[in-house]
Amino acid sequence: MVRQPSVNARDRAPLSTERIIEAALQIIDGQGLGRLTMRRLGDALEVEAMAIYHHLPRGKEQLLDGLVAHVAAAPADTRGAAGWRASLRTWARDYRERLLEHAGVLPLVVTRRNPAALTETSRSLRELLRQGGVPEERAEVAAHTLLGYVIGHAALEARAGDDSGVDWEARFAAGLDLVLAGVL
């Protein structure tokens, strides 16, 4: 079957890795990770599925890695907050929100090997801790612990759903207090 271009095909942005990732996120956010197929993605982008392979030669494996990198990337710089602890709180809150916004990708964040995204996030946390006077070795452990706490909490929260009766915001804040108190 040859796909006929839609009337407004000229108005669409050209196919790019970023556009493919965004379309995949829309599918996952709306229908779940299990519904993501290259064919469904091609339909969403109004291209033949094979056109996606031009941007992602390794196919679905590369797509899944790209989704993890997109969702698990460090949020915007938070150093404008008053003090390093406030910056870490802002980072943790923003990161949790980002993960929950794309909860369908959380299983991939937890299970896929994509060290680049998480390594960069950990590096930026380590730097923030070091600027706050935390020694390098301790900053490395604290960054790893904080990253694990936020990802783990988001995964538990997403799994439980809204009808669990738990005040997830309060629980997250209380746990974050415990983690940050252990840093120094």
Quick gist of this model?
This protein is mainly alpha-helical and 184 residues long. It is built from nine helices and no strands.
Walk me through this protein's architecture.
The protein has 184 residues and is an all-alpha fold. It folds into two domains: 49 residues, Orthogonal Bundle (Arc Repressor Mutant, subunit A); 108 residues, Tetracycline Repressor, domain 2 (Orthogonal Bundle), CATH 1.10.357. The protein contains nine helices and no strands. It is globular. 24% of the residues are buried. It holds the Pfam family TetR_N.
Structure annotation, total helices: 9
Taken together, the total number of domains comes to 2
CATH architecture assignment name of the largest domain: Orthogonal Bundle
Q: Structural class given helices, strands, pairing?
A: mainly alpha
Mean pLDDT value:
87
| Overall outline | globular
Roughly what fraction of the amino acids lie in strands? under 5%
Q: Helicity level, as a percent range? A: 55-70%
Radius of gyration: 19 Å
